[in-house]
Amino acid sequence: MTSSVKVALIQMTSSSEVDDNLAKAEKLIESAAAQGAQFIVLPESFALMEKYNGQKLEHVERDGQGKVQDWMSSLAKKLKLVLVGGTIAVESEIENKPYARCYVYQEDGSLLAHYDKIHLFDVSVKEGESYSESSNTLAGSEPVTFNWQGITFGCSVCYDLRFPELYRYYQTHNVDVILAPSAFTLATGKVHWKLLLQARAVENLAFVVAPNQTGTHDNQRKTFGHSMVIDPWGEVIDELQEDEGISIATLNINKIDMIKEKFPVHLHRKLMS
Predict the structure, then answer these.
(1) Which of 24, 44, 50, 222 is catalytic?
(2) Per residue in 20-45, pLDDT tens?
(3) pLDDT tens across 142-157, in order?
(4) What is the DSSP string of the chain?
(5) Residue limits of the CN hydrolase domain (predicted)?
(6) Is 158 considered catalytic here?
(7) Virtual CA dihedral for 21, 141, 225, 112, nearest 10 degrees?
(8) Of residues 56, 158, 194, 244, which has the active-site annotation?
(9) Residue 262 falls in the annotated catalytic set
(10) Amino acid 2: pLDDT
(11) Are 63 and 13 in contact (CB under 8 A)?
């Protein structure tokens, strides 16, 4: 098992133009790779931020084939790194209800894992700002873990952060790093983003890696930014502000065992589901 990994978070203001988003993301990924990043995570909806409800249905890909999947695979292989692709719309068994799927490609360009977002964003954020993700998205049903170089990762996306039972599952499966690519809104991000990330890290004694969308998108939706990496003690290792860009941090995986040895809260649980 490797004792550390250099991760990069990509923060974007994605638009409704897929080619423009991929070109922008590729430049940021290449810059992160040039700085030594081994494991790069894109935000939710990195390839398409809908300008109008249902636009993503025009860009649904089949599992295993499609422009965005091919782009992720080839870039991971070209740069010899792991690339986590936020979410894209991938065909499900129900017409016009694709999964919001997070793909993970490894250094040879092959698929390492994929996760379908479980909790869908059906909320009213404030007066005049509401969302109904389930109207054109099918929820996933299975937590997903994967192993890379002896490190265990657990997958989640954005709204999942509000449901701690998902992360308790990951804690019981000895996950070292929680991935949480997001498009967290400005209104909710101001009050809950950092709080939720720190809670998920502390209660499960894991690193949390959370790239976010940022700024005002061409659909006028506003996202919070502040992509960040949290360590198992709840400390912020690195944080971006509101601009697009890259956050790079080295995760010392041995820190998890050091904390567990001194503060073995994971052994003290009394109430199990």
Answers:
(1) 44
(2) 999 999 999 999 999 999 999 999 99
(3) 999 999 999 999 999 9
(4) --SEEEEEEEEB---S-HHHHHHHHHHHHHHHHHTT-SEEEEPTTSS---SSTTGGGGG-BBTTBSHHHHHHHHHHHHHTSEEEE--EEE--SSTT--EEEEEEE-TTS-EEEEEE--S--EEEEETTEEEEGGGS-B------EEEETTEEEEE--GGGGG-HHHHHHHHHTT-SEEE--B--BHHHIIIIIHHHHHHHHHHHT-EEEE-BBEEE-TTS-EEE---EEE-TTS-EEEE--SSSEEEEEEEETHHHHHHHHH--GGG------
(5) 5-253
(6) yes
(7) -60
(8) 158
(9) no
(10) 75
(11) no
3-state secondary structure 240-251: CCCCCEEEEEEE
Distance between CA atoms of residues 26 and 5, nearest Å: 21
Torsion sign over Cα 52, 58, 59, 61: positive
d(CA 116, CA 95): 16
- Say if CB 199 and CB 147 are below 8 A apart: no
State pLDDT tens for residues 176-206: 999 999 999 999 999 999 999 999 999 999 9
24, 56, 117, 194: which is the annotated catalytic residue?
Answer: 117
Pick from 227, 160, 226, 222: nearest CA to 187: 222
Distance CA 171, CA 149 (A): 19
Confirm if 107 and 82 have CB atoms less than 8 A apart: yes
